[in-house]
Amino acid sequence: MKNVRYIFVTGGVASSLGKGVSIAAIGTLLESRGYKVTIQKMDPYLNIDPGTMSPYQHGEVYVTDDGAETDLDLGYYERFTNSALSYLNSVSTGQVYYTVIQRERKGEYLGRTVQVIPHITNEIKNRILLLEKNNPDIDFVLVEIGGTVGDIESVPFLEAIRQFRLDKGPERTLFVHLTLLPTISPAGEVKTKPTQHSVKELLNQGIQPDILICRAKNYLDDEVKSKISLFCNVTVKRVISAPDIDYTIYEIPNIYHKEKLDDEIMKYFKIENTDPLFSGNPTLEKWESVVQVFKNPESIVKIALVGKYIVLSDAYRSLREALWHGGLPLNSKVEFINVDSEILNSKNVKELLKDAHGILVPGGFGERGISGKLDAITYARENKIPYLGICLGMQCAVIEFARNVLKMENANSREFNADTIYPVIDIMEDQVSITDKGGTMRLGAYPAKLVRGSLLQQIYNSLDIKERHRHRFEFNNRFRNDFLKSAMLISATSPDDKLVEAIELNPSVHPWFIGTQYHPEFKSQPLKPHPLFVSFIEHSRKMILKNK
Ligand code: GLN
């Protein structure tokens, strides 16, 4: 058994400091030194998972290969590292209590009183240990404790990691605390007091942080670092600056590296040349080139995102990231035109979408905003603007085509109209009898076969793919023949041919119009952009000249 090392990241002073990105960037640095990492998120809410939460509450729901509906931070973990995540990587208070209570009902506690300490904390520790058991070649387990230190909800998690250090020893556990240093105007002075208080709060829980990552407007000067070091009992070299960045989060691994965060982690764990784990210096050139595209792009491609939740950029987080990735091999930066589908209609569509080089309708649920999405699709189809429809965006493309080209009046999805005579999108057979909402959709990665000669096959350069899903409705096979005779081609199906996985328009009627029932955005990484997004941006870029 390896000597797996554990790094715990907590957050203080304010929420939304970017703990997810921060721990993911630590993962990047460790991987760039040749180590294998996995990253786990502890979410302090009572929901079993975010699958039942509104995007307004929680941002996007990220889906893993094995079909876990998880926090969007797992998306950052998979974009920044190569660690393959599963349902084990996403833990919530709800899951922990549910497991303990089920065990109690089975009588497994043998008459004892069931308590937060030790039963809940033991369950939390078990879940951390499971990662090592399931990934025997792992070197580092990184654990993000959600919430802000001082919240009632995080207390059991902090207690569990305090005990974890006791169990494994400081030589195998490292506590990183991410904190905020506000600047008070007009003097522009950086304030350390909230950080001091937040560290005291952690100490109250029995945890002395070993490294502080300090979010602030700028790099911290030596004086501020010394002050924090003195008051927080952390050596100066372990007070790391995390300045606000103008360009891209993909710069963060480089910033941390320049601040010598990875060196300090190596030193903390006493990983030297002689250690079997030591593997030299990190290589971050590829990340540097990602940043360069953001700073000096050759072109700017504007993609209209037509959805319900556009005010909240995290609601389509993976999608926005995947679109950016798509521009990277083309030295192009993608900018978004955020269009609220509830506002868009056939009268203002031209005005709202006139600057778009490509149009994208993302996934979604419920009828609100559908009519605007359909108008946006008609506009993209008729004006030959590249269109990518994802999940609901594919379903809408099918509805739009059925209504306006195949003349199936009021064609619809049964999700929006149970009585339509043209239910071109219908509930999946095995979903009909399901009443529970949590974790019951068609979830996770499934194989699909692509149709030879389709645009999709050219893009993937393969006939077999595996992509992730999250849906209850599907293309209704009753209408396959009607579509087969038209310009809309079914370009991917499940291997048994029963489920339609993608559609596209014949190149004779449209240069680039694709809808996928699956979510390709979950598998795109900046260092490995998803081919579908690269192709979409490439074709959208051609519109720059046309629009001039
Ligand atoms: N609401 C649609 C369905 O359940 C689409 C889901 C989605 O876009 N993720 O099939």
Describe this structure in words.
This protein is of the alpha/beta class and 548 residues long. It has two domains: 9-191, 3-Layer(aba) Sandwich (Rossmann fold); 297-547, Class I glutamine amidotransferase (GATase) domain (Rossmann fold). 35% of the residues lie in helices and 22% in strands. The chain has 18 helices and 23 strands. The strands form five sheets. A nine-stranded mixed sheet has the order 13-12-14-15-23-22-21-18-19, sandwiched between helices. Strands 5-2-6-1-7-10-11 form a seven-stranded parallel sheet, sandwiched between helices. A three-stranded mixed sheet has the order 16-17-20, with helices on one face. Helix 14 (370-382) links the parallel strand 14 and strand 15 (387-390). Helix 1 crosses helix 9 and helix 12 (317-327) packs across helix 18. It is globular. The structure holds glutamine (GLN). Glutamine (GLN) binds at residues 363-365, 391-392, 415, 470-473.
Give a quick summary of the entry:
Helix content is 35%, strand content 22%. With 548 residues, it is an alpha/beta fold. It folds into 2 domains: 9-191, P-loop containing nucleotide triphosphate hydrolases (Rossmann fold); 297-547, Class I glutamine amidotransferase (GATase) domain (Rossmann fold, 3-Layer(aba) Sandwich), CATH 3.40.50.880.
